[in-house]
Hints:
The complex is a heterodimer. Chain A has helices spanning about 1-15, 35-45, 55-65, 70, 130-135, 150-155; strands spanning about 50-55, 75-80, 105-110, 110-115, 120, 135-145, 145-150, 165-170, 175, 185, 190-195. Chain A is about 25% helix and about 25% strand.
Amino acid sequence: MTDTRRLILDRLRKHAIAGDTSYPAYSHPHAGISDLRRSFQSVIESVGGECRYVADLEAARKVISGSEILTAAKTICSHVKEVAEGNFDAEAKSDAHQCADVDLTIVRGALGVAENGAVWVNADPLRHRALLFLSENLILVIEGRDIVPDMESAYARIDFTRLRSGYFISGPSKTADIEQCLVIGAHGAKSVLVLVVG
Amino acid sequence: MKSHARLAAAFLKQEKRAHWHDQALWYVREKRDRMAASVPDWEALRETAQAIKRHALANLPRYLEEFEQNAAARGAIVHYALDPAEHNRIVLEVLKSKNARLVAKSKSMLSEECGLNEFLERNGVEVVETDLAERIIQLAGERPSHIVLPSIHIRKEEVGEIFHEHLGTEKGESDPTRLTRAARTHLREKFLAAQAGISGVNFAVAETGAVVICTNEGNADLGNSLPDLYIAVMGVEKVIPKTKDLGVFLRLLSRSATGQPISAYTSHLLGPRPGQEMHIVIVDNGRSEILQRERFYKAAFCIRCGACLNTCPVYRRSGGHSYNYVIPGPIGTILAMHRDLKKYKDMPYASTLCGSCTAVCPVKIDIHRQIVLWRNEVVEAGHLGRAKSAALKTATLGMKRTRLFRLGGWTVRKLLRSLPPFVFNNRLTIWGRSRDLPKMPAQSFRAEYRAHSKSKTNLSESGLNREGRS
Ligand code: SF4
């Protein structure tokens, strides 16, 4: 393996790339989004998700308790106790496979991106990151002040120094692999609700 | 091996399917256009993306080492493989070391390139493709016909039949939602039973050692988070210097690929999850050679978005299986030629050279220019067929001598007007099989030009305007 490694690295040193090969200085903000909140919401809706703005956690709790998803869900795993109690403690399970039947998972997102409706979820606080993809439905709770315009500003805010895994999640899991017909709910969540607090 | 022209002709015989294929891909191309137009700095983003690639690939040894160190510091085990054989052997050894017999695999063009699935199956490992399209293809025993939409050539009724046979869905079922649900149930079982996950990589960040994977279905994410063993396979060219650069590439990738603002899931993995073993296999397989070729190195900038396939008038109308290389379309052409000039010699001719591929490519690869240059190489190497060679030689002869050219032009103008069409439109004349000759003009361009110059002051008199040729 070390031989292969050296061989490959040596070969790569002999490239023919011409022109300016310096690292570019750049910044390409997604200018022109006049209303971050509106844009964030409408992109999420366009990718098959739902986005609601609420004043505080209490209001978020009301939205969730009145939602169809919660009423239909039997197994609920909540990591945001202020908005829902839940009845399934994933943290107590030693193996992610034991979370296979979770109907609804509620977690916090660290930020939302207005240009593409993505929510950044740091999975490190969770014992089982697989929960994010096993769960039939997902509710992501973010703070209103954490909506940024674009990916450039999003990455500027994410600290990778100690991170082990993080995900941008934009709407529910989906596929168009059968004749380009959009079907929501491929392997991951069949629905994603983003609650923006404040 | 059948030529592209023959395979394309076979594809086009099924007229309805061919038309649907063309339309479906054009629809994706249009979505891409709308998305590109909605990003204010789109062209500048493409420029920057290319500049980053240019820099990263010119300094690849340094960045690979940085990536490797950072990934290792996070607990990932990094391997290098020179060719498919080494790649496959490493993957098998790792799987065996953990006694993994069932693998949940996510889409990876690299593993197609290496023939990984067949190799593992031969060695007693069951590989289940978990991307819906890939699973359809795998059950049908075919190969992908597109790098992003692998089953774009298969109609829903056929998916219904495949699923009826393998997953036990009802006979005649062709509803995409119900078929997708059946696949979800079937694949969920596999995910839960698999002892290992394998996936490709979209980007590897040198600065942090992060591996970044984009999917819409969430399959790669289940595959890399559930099992206790996860193997990421990547080409050397996937490394980018900084986290910040993801902001450029991710903004371009999904918009170019499927016209989405971003894929549903973008996973960033820095080392294994607790209790897991994570391996990263970095593969060369000819990439270093591409980077050493002056006129062709940009082919290695590709981020596999598939936009050049969706826009290509030849790809859309001939289908991915008409190209003999594992990667079809414009990018497949310029990659295949590095592999085997002789074997794939017909691929550069499966192009109109319209340049649409170059116009949409998010990293601004000069795709159509490279295709022309490859034609050049094919001719130089003497791989052009006898008929085409003879025609080209004759043309060269004529073009080099003014008198001969004039005489030729005159003869053709006179002759073709009086000859009956079957002389041209017959089976022996390749060009005339599906084309008619244009109407022959009364006089040569030279003569028209002279007339035009004389009456510059009164254009309408020259008659050029009326014919719309001025
Ligand atoms: S060559 Fe360009 S357009 Fe084609 S797949 Fe690669 S990145 Fe996309």
